[in-house]
Amino acid sequence: MNSIKESFDNLPVAVCFFDNRGVVRLMNRRMLSVGAELLGSGVQTLNELRRALDTPPESIERLDAEMGVYKFPNGTVLRFVERQITDKSGGSYTEVTASDVTRLVTLQQELRKENARLEDANLRLKRLYDRMPEIVREEETLAMKLRVHDDIGHTILSARRALRQGESMEAIRESAEAWESTIELLCRANSMGEPEDAIEYAKARAAELGAEVIVEGSAPKDGEMRHIFALAIRECTSNCIRHAGGKRIFARFAPYRGGWGIHITNDGKVPDDEITEGGGLSALRRRIENAGGIMRIKSRPNFALSASLPYGEENKW
Q1: What SS3 string covers 41-60?
Q2: What are the pLDDT digits (tens) for 168-192?
Q3: pLDDT grade, residue 294 (50/70/90)?
Q4: What's the whole-number mean pLDDT along residues 32-57?
Q5: CA dist., res. 23 & res. 228, Å (int)
Q6: What is the pLDDT of residue 171?
Q7: CA–CA distance from 209 to each of 72, 199, 206, 229, 237 (Å)?
Q8: Cβ-contact 202, 213 below 8 angstroms
Q9: Per-residue pLDDT averaged across 51-76, rounded?
Q10: Residue (of 284, 267, 132) closest to 212 by Cα position
């Protein structure tokens, strides 16, 4: 019998039992200590224990009234649970336990801090995502200016070589026209405003450059998809005007299981050789592939660019 009492006293959980009148009948050593901190003396009745838990002393902090969680002065956190039990003879008792949940509460607090850090990181990422179109436009503008700079440098060198080598006026005139076309393209692009919709902007940009974008099919509603497809239209428009001498760009949209696709052609001349991707097309390919998509280019029987983009779970229609 003494061994049973000793084992009961040494339980890590504080336990006590009250009879149907609310008088304490059995209590282990751990609950005696807890009761002394709550009441300043030993626990005698269930009601006085309940009152002490409803209005604990200042030294004990109630962390969660509904769950019965309290923090004691030594930093230990206990959860009090009350339940009704019946013995073999039918006697009714109330069992009160106080389990040590310090580790669980510490982990919960760490989890809340981590969630707060994640929420802050998500907020920063959202702000960055919201600014992404602006950042991309700045990158595209810089890339365009670099290409124009290269074109101007090339035409200047061509004109200088023509003058030094005494080439015909026709050759010199062609170099000058190329230079003039490049500068005009830059001036028109810089003078345009940008509407909110990326595809409408691509069409307006083409119109400013003297071309027409003819859209077939239904374009995706997702903003990031529309922006990437609009970049493809703009790059194809620029290349059509500069290299193929075309005036009409055909962009056909089509959804497929898991994403959206675009197929772009033009009415310009067929490329003389297989197309070698330069800065613009290479940058477009990286952008599409980074978004999980695929881009294909062919030169025969006419120029065509095809691209497909998958959409995430939140963008499934």
Answers
A1: CCCCEHHHHHHHHHCCCCCC
A2: 666 666 666 666 665 665 565 555 4
A3: very high
A4: 89
A5: 75
A6: 63
A7: 75, 15, 5, 19, 9
A8: yes
A9: 91
A10: 267
- CB neighbour list of residue 133: distance below 8 Å, 6 or more residues apart: 198, 227
- Rounded CA gap, 293 and 315, in Å? 15
* DSSP codes of every residue in 178-238: HHHHHHHHHHHHHT----SSHHHHHHHHHHHTT-EEEEESPPP--HHHHHHHHHHHHHHHH
The tens digit of pLDDT for each residue in 124-137 reads: 888 777 776 677 66
Q: Contact, 38 vs 26, CB < 8 A?
A: no
Q: What is the model's pLDDT at position 2?
A: 64
Widest CA span in the chain: 122
- Collapse the DSSP code of 26 into the 3-class scheme (helix H, G, I; strand E, B; otherwise coil) and give the result: strand
- Is residue 169 classed exposed, middle or buried when 0-12, 13-18 and 19+ CB atoms within 10 A define those classes? exposed
Q: What is the C-alpha to C-alpha distance for residues 276 and 159, in angstroms, rounded to an integer?
A: 25
Three-state SS for 78-112 is EEEEEEEEECCCCCEEEEEEEEECHHHHHHHHHHH
